[in-house]
Amino acid sequence: METHAHHLHKAPGSGWKHYLFEFLMLFLAVTLGFFVENLREHNLDRQREGEFMTSLLDDLQKDKVILKNIISKGTIPVAYNDSLSTELQKTPLQGREKRIYHFLLLYTTLIDFTYHDRTISQLKYSGGFRLVRNKEVSDALLDYDIYMRQSVAYAENWFTSSIVSTDININYHIYELYRVQKFQDSALAHMIEPAKVAYPPDLKLLTYDPNEIKHTLNSMSYVRITDETKYERAKASLKMNEDLSKLIREQYHIE
Q1: Which residue from 108, 63, 82, 79 is spatially nearest to 236, judged by alpha carbons?
Q2: What does pTM read for this prediction?
């Protein structure tokens, strides 16, 4: 009888321990499941972060090529704006037409911005910036994005476009552009040797009126400001581009 009572007394305790054991096992299983899932998500995020950085480096390289091209040609329109302005202030203009046209073609060398923002747009608009753990990289990336967008906006805004359009319209009233535009590449190849460019021998200005010449000089002074600004922005953009590329490679160990 005593033995039977002793077993009845121990049974509740054994059940409690059994349930506690099952609870702990379930808790550990759930915790381990969360841990494994978090680890999987973490590894997936790191993989996506690395893919974004590799893609960013590709975009930065494309920008770098364009920026270097802008810089290599960027001094040309500014310098030859000055040269053409000086030439147009001399008198008489008759007999100086080939030199004037040569400076004109160099002065009208195009400076334009193109920004490869495919990857950074994906980061911004898909919530991908949360994946960029390195604050120094994310800050530098946002600074670069803002500056490049501002540079493109400056090159394309209505004020800059209006200045350029006005200057082009004035040029069509003063120069025989249809006869010389095809020589622009040759002019660039022989900047300091205009005699090597096969300009037509009978080139003339469409007008020699001093008031018209003064009008184009005023227009050129505004264009010079915009061209010089675009050139300086290209230099600053290239510096930011190279610094950002270097930072990404260092922080993410990308060769």
Answers
A1: 63
A2: 0.78
